[in-house]
Amino acid sequence: MRRSATSTPFSFLLEMLLVLFFFSISAAILVSVYGRCVWINKEDLLTKEALILAQNAIQDPLSLKEGTYEEVIEKQTCQIVIEEQDDGFGTYTVYANEKELFSLSYYKGGEGE
Amino acid sequence: MNQLKNIHVFFSLSLLFLFATCSFLLVYSQIQGYKKLESNIELANEKYTPIAYLNQKISNYDQVQSIDIQKIDGISCLVLQDDQTTTYIYAKDGYMQELYCLNDMEVNLDSGQELMECQKLDFSWDEIGISYTFNNTNIRVALHSGGWV
Predict the structure, then answer these.
(1) Does B125 contact chain A (CB < 8 Å)?
(2) Per-residue three-class SS string for B101-118
(3) In chain A, what's the furthest Cα-to-Cα distance?
(4) For A41, which of B5, B40, B137 is closest by C-beta distance?
(5) Is the confidence metric ipTM above 0.85 for this complex?
(6) pLDDT digits (tens), chain A, 113 positions
(7) Which residues on A lie below 8 Å from B59 (Cβ)?
C-alpha cells in the first residue's frame, strides 16, 4: 500500500516532465516558423516598396546614372546599383542587408539615339 | 511519507499548471501574430492592387490622343478614350471609382462604379507622361506614344 501511494504522483511527475519536454520542442518549432513568417512578410513589403521606387525610376531611363546609391525604404537602408552596358541596356538592382531583392533590366538606347 | 506524497502532488500540479499556462500563452501569441501578419498583407494589397490596376489601364490606353487628365466638379479624373467610349477614373467618397460611358454622353461622377478604397487620387502631367498620387504614394508612368488628348 505504501509503495503504490508514493509511485502514483511520481509517475505523474515523470509524465508531466515528458509532456513539457515535447511541448518545449514543439513551441520552439512554432516560434521559429512564426519568426520566419514575420521575416518573409517584412521582406515582401520591402520588395514591393522597392519595386515601386524602381518602376518610377525606370520610367525615365535617360535620367538614370550608373553607380551605387543608398535609399531608406520601410525604415531600412537599401543599396541601389545601376549598371549600364554597351548595347544600351542597363540593370537596376536593389540590395537589402547585402542580399539581392530583385534586379530589373531596362533599355536606355544606344549612343546617338 | 504523507508529506513526501504532498510534495509530489504539489510539484506535479505546478508542472501541469506550467504546461497549461505555456500552452495558452503560445496559442494566444501565435493567434495575435498571425492576425498582425494578415492585416499587414491586407494593407499591402489595398495599396498595391489599385496601383497595378491604374498602371495597367494607362499602359493599355497608351496611344495617340487616348489619355487626358481633367478636373470635373473639382475632382481630378484620368480620362481614357477610344473610338466610342470614355473611361473616367477618379476618387470619390473614399473609393477609387470608374465611370464607363459613350463619348457623347454627359458625365455624372455620381454614377461611377466603386472599385477599391482610396482617400486621395491626384493625376498630373509629367515630362515623361503621367504621374499620380495614390493616397501617399507617388507613381510615374511613361507614355511611349506621347498620347495625351
Answers:
(1) no
(2) EECCCCCCHHHCEEEEEC
(3) 103
(4) B40
(5) no
(6) 445 445 666 787 788 888 889 989 999 998 999 999 999 999 999 999 999 999 999 988 888 889 999 999 888 899 999 999 888 899 999 999 889 999 999 988 765 44
(7) none
